[in-house]
UniProtKB/TrEMBL annotation:
PROSITE patterns: N6_MTASE. Pfam families: Eco57I, N6_Mtase. Belongs to the N(4)/N(6)-methyltransferase family. One of its GO terms (biological process) is DNA restriction-modification system. SUPFAM superfamilies: S-adenosyl-L-methionine-dependent methyltransferases. This is site-specific DNA-methyltransferase (adenine-specific). InterPro entries: DNA_methylase_A-5, DNA_methylase_N6_adenine_CS, MethylTrfase_TaqI-like_dom, N4_N6_ade-DNA_methylase, SAM-dependent_MTases_sf. Residues 29-72 form the DNA methylase adenine-specific domain. CDD domains: AdoMet_MTases. The lineage of its organism: Bacteria, Pseudomonadati, Bacteroidota, Cytophagia, Cytophagales. Residues 74-210 form the Type II methyltransferase M.TaqI-like domain. One of its GO terms (molecular function) is DNA binding.
Length: 578
């Protein structure tokens, strides 16, 4: 009997422990989602503390201390004059540190100045911010002065930290890098330029630092000062390896990294972690695509968030032409379950051989992203397309009668098809769920396809591909169509988009998450474009040569042809640079 109770006791004790672990995990996941928490590994906290140039009596602030990793490391280094804030009560209860204030740093009334502010601020996109946090921001004087509902939670942590720094105080944060060049963070960047300077920025790209998060990360040291140093040290570590003590030592010794200096960032500009030679190439590329507009077009210009604006001495606005000026752009259609609709030439060979005429007429030709290569493509895949746009099927019985091969393929997947996202309407299981841009894709025009996302960690090119009319993109592809009255040939546009200058521009100024470049409508529309001066015979001849060689390259795929195309672009683009 005692043996039985002993095992019951052990079972219950183990059960309680398991439940406690589960409960703690649930709390952690819930609060992580709520407060934007991603906890810093100690090895990174130690590395960041080493960047600080302070003494043992310096006043230190940690504005969102989380699990207390920075506090522990600071104490190990002998620092005692530390204050920390943490909004999450569950985390505060677990910390053995007397100077933690369980309060939101955003709302806290702070009347003292600090020599060092260090940590890992929360980052939450506005659309994901909890209502109680939004309400707090709306009441914040700083938020209302500098930010709006297009801005992220991270921004106010950076700005308020600088507000409570002492003169020559240091701000050392680890955070995502995206705010360095987004439109919505411009007010933050301008504030930082006005109030101090960057000493060093470490760019870790997609190095796996935070558990469960793939994000391009920087560690920066910013100094609040009226006097500035001329250059920022940029150290890039881009290996996809988990950070170890050995790797940290290599980084500190400038081994296995890219190291260069850039000039201090300027107001009203995007901040690029790029060496001066590459920046000059980008500026020259934009200059080669520039056109001059007078003030009558000012309103139109201001509506384009991606336009590159600058003022010259005659009070006119100088902008560059973009792909948006010459192309209609559309993201591909959504089937909701590609494997159901694909008629794969290998796996569906028998079905393809037995299709009736009406079934053949109810297929569309599709090119997937994986089959795109620069300038052209490898394979076209037929897809079942029994939507109301090309058929009047109203029920499952008609589907079986008129489209027996389609019915045989789709019926086993009915349950999965009915679980697709319905886009706020009732969708028959044999239909595609979202035919966005169908009329554009169904036009009798050739088109250029590009994958919606492109990883560039191991390549120096994109895959803009010429595709004939009648071929459709799915959701992993974006398509470009020349607008009416555009005189440039589509093969000229194709060769331009595959030019190394476009790759370099997008790598630095495109929409990038880690090593992945996004090619949705807005990022593509922002790409600078070199229009032809149709009154200039030399430019016309260059245009025609590029078109002829591009068509030849698609047929023959010879490297020397591509080299000649890019040399012609060198001549054309350099002709506008003083």
């Amino acid at each position: 009997m005692l043996f039985f109770y002993f095992h019951v006791y052990l079972y219950e004790n183990q059960f309680d422990k398991k439940m406690k672990i589960i409960e703690e995990k649930v709390i952690t996941e819930r609060t992580k989602n709520k407060y934007g928490q991603y906890f810093t590994p100690k090895i990174i906290a130690d590395f960041m503390i080493e960047l600080a140039d302070i003494n043992q009596n310096s006043k230190i602030l940690e504005p969102s201390c989380g699990e207390g990793v920075f506090l522990k490391s600071l104490q190990e280094e002998g620092f005692e004059n530390i204050i920390a804030y943490e909004i999450d009560e569950e985390l505060v209860k677990k910390l053995n540190f007397e100077n933690i204030i369980c309060e939101s740093f955003i709302s806290a009334k702070i009347n003292e100045k600090f020599d060092l502010i260090i940590g890992n601020p929360p980052y939450i996109r506005w659309k994901n911010i909890e209502e109680e946090l939004k309400a707090e921001l709306i009441k914040s004087e700083l938020w209302n002065r500098y930010f709006n509902s297009l801005c992220d939670y991270l921004y106010i942590f950076i700005l308020k930290s600088i507000e409570v720094l002492a003169e020559n105080g240091q701000l050392i944060f680890i955070c995502p890098e995206y705010w360095l060049n987004t439109t919505h963070s411009l007010s933050l960047r301008n504030y930082m330029v006005k109030n101090g300077y960057f000493e060093v920025i470490y760019h870790f790209n997609e190095t796996p630092i935070f558990e469960g998060a793939t994000v391009s990360v920087i560690v920066f040291k910013y100094v609040k000062s009226k006097n500035k140093i001329p250059f920022i040290d940029i150290i890039k570590y881009h290996k996809n390896k988990k950070i170890t003590t050995e790797i940290i030592e290599q980084i500190k010794e400038r081994k296995e990294v890219d190291f260069f200096k850039v000039k201090q960032f300027e107001a009203n500009k995007r901040w690029l972690l790029t060496d001066e030679n590459e920046v000059l190439e980008i500026e020259n590329f934009e200059k080669a695509c520039q056109i001059t507009q007078n003030n009558s077009t000012k309103n139109a210009i201001n509506n384009d968030l991606f336009a590159s604006l600058s003022e010259n001495k005659t009070d006119t606005k100088v902008i560059y032409s973009t792909i948006n000026d010459i192309c209609d752009i559309g993201n591909g259609m959504v089937s909701g379950l590609d494997k159901a609709f694909q008629l794969d030439k290998k796996n569906d060979k028998q079905t393809l051989e037995t299709l009736s005429e009406i079934e053949k007429e109810s297929t569309v030709s599709v090119i997937k992203a994986k089959n795109l290569i620069p300038f052209t493509y490898n394979e076209i895949t037929p897809y079942i397309f029994v939507n109301e746009e090309n058929t009047k099927i109203i029920d499952e019985e008609e589907l079986e009668n008129y489209y027996p091969n389609f019915y045989k393929k789709l019926k086993p997947l009915k349950e999965k098809l009915e679980k697709r996202y319905q886009y706020n309407r009732k969708i028959n299981y044999w239909e595609w769920v979202f035919l966005r841009n169908y009329n554009l894709f169904n036009s009798e025009k050739p088109r250029i396809f590009v994958p919606c996302k492109e990883r560039i960690s191991n390549k120096n090119y994109f895959r803009f591909s010429f595709v004939e009319q009648g071929v459709f993109p799915t959701q992993d592809v974006t398509a470009l169509f020349l607008k009416e009255n555009v005189k440039e040939n589509i093969f000229y546009v194709l060769a331009f988009l595959n030019n190394p200058r476009v790759f370099n521009w997008l790598k630095n100024k495109g929409i990038i998450k880690g090593n992945i470049v996004e090619f949705s409508e807005k990022p593509i529309s922002s790409i600078p474009f070199r229009k032809i001066d149709w009154k200039n015979q030399t430019e016309i001849e260059l245009h025609n040569q590029i078109v002829e060689l591009t068509e030849l390259f698609i047929l023959e795929r010879k490297q020397e042809i591509l080299t000649e195309i890019n040399q012609l672009f060198d001549v054309l683009l350099n002709s506008k640079i003083d």
